[in-house]
Structure formats: C-alpha cells, structure tokens
Automatic annotation (TrEMBL):
It comes from the Bacteria. This is Flavin reductase family protein. InterPro entries: Flavin_Rdtase-like_dom, NADH-dep_flavin_reductase, Split_barrel_FMN-bd. Coiled coil: none annotated. It comes from Microlunatus aurantiacus. Residues 27-178 form the Flavin reductase like domain. The keyword Oxidoreductase applies. It holds the Pfam family Flavin_Reduct. Signal peptide: none annotated. Keywords: Oxidoreductase.
Length: 185
C-alpha cells in the first residue's frame, strides 16, 4: 500500500486510503478542461494530453499539472526547461485523442508550428501559455509539475484567433463535451 501522509504533513497516517479504482471512478464524475502539453526535447517533439491543468497563482502567474511517473513523456519532461500548455477547443477532440495515444508520432498529423523559442504550439488551439518549469515534485505514482507563465497566445497576435469566444473541450465520465450558451445556468 502506498504510504499516506498525515494531516500534520510528515509521517504515515493510520487512516487507510481508498482504492485506485474508487478514486478514478469518483474523478470521472468531475469535469475537466482538456489541454495538450508540448515541448522540445533535444531534437524530438514531445506532447501529451492533460486534464489536470490548474491555475495556482496570478501573482506570480503559476500553473500546474500532473503526469504519471511511468509515462513515456516523463523522461523528456524531467529534463525540459520550458513547455507550452495548449488549451483545446471543442473542435479539437481528434487532437486530444491523438496526443493521448501511446506508441505513435503525435506530431505526424501536422497542425502545429514552432515558436521562435523552439517549442511546438498547436495551430488551432484558441489559447496557449508558454511556461518555465519551476518545480517537479514526486507525489504518489505521479509528478506534480509547477510552471511560471512567461508568454501566451495573447502576446502573439496571428498565431491563433484571440478575439472570438471558442467553446472549450471538456472531459467528463470518459466522454468529451463542450461548454457554450446552451450549458450556462
């Protein structure tokens, strides 16, 4: 059983934790925005789908995401200095699925370009953030990666349409969804 940290933040707890299956079932019911994290590792482009991207702080501008330590993308990410977080639109279901598929060249399908700094950015992503990795923290079977936002699609007119509202891609209960006026309460 994985060691559980106590509330005091130090040693093992005498409380048991829920099973991984129960945990996954609960989080399938929690909707999440979909992003693709992209980076350049040596001469290779790396990218993967993430539904764990969160805003951490506005001042300084920090975001974070998690990635399984056993992921094929972890090795390159462990060495990277910068990444791009591409926030996907509801029209990018195929892109999300491609970057979540193992054992393929995820960039072979095209639809991306390189920033002047060398990182790949997905052409049709309505918004993206280029960020510096400031911390990698092993937690359980994953890595928590904290990023400081450096620039964004808002700083690069012409890379994407920045004025038009675009419904985001949302993942919930193993299905993709979109938000829009029809879903507003």
């Amino acid at each position: 059983m994985t060691e559980v940290l106590s509330r005091a933040g130090g040693g093992p707890s005498d409380l048991t934790s829920m099973s991984p299956e129960e945990f996954k079932t609960l989080f399938r019911q929690h909707p999440a925005g979909v992003a693709v994290i992209t980076l350049r590792h040596r001469d290779r482009l790396v990218g993967f789908t993430a539904t764990s991207v969160i805003s951490v702080s506005a001042d300084p501008p920090l975001i974070a995401f998690s990635l399984a330590s056993g992921s094929g993308s972890w090795g390159p990410l462990a060495e990277a200095e910068t990444v791009v977080v591409n926030f996907l639109s509801a029209e990018q279901v195929e892109v999300s699925a491609r970057f979540a598929t193992r054992g393929i060249d995820r960039f072979a399908g095209g639809g991306w370009s390189l920033l002047e700094t060398g990182e790949p950015v997905l052409d049709d992503s309505p918004r993206w953030i280029r960020a510096e990795i400031v911390q990698r923290t092993p937690i359980g079977s994953s890595q928590l990666v904290c990023l400081r936002a450096i620039s964004s699609s808002l700083d690069h007119p012409g890379t994407v349409e920045t004025d038009a509202p675009v419904p985001p891609l949302v993942y919930h209960d193993r299905l993709y969804h979109q938000l829009g006026d029809h879903s507003a309460l």
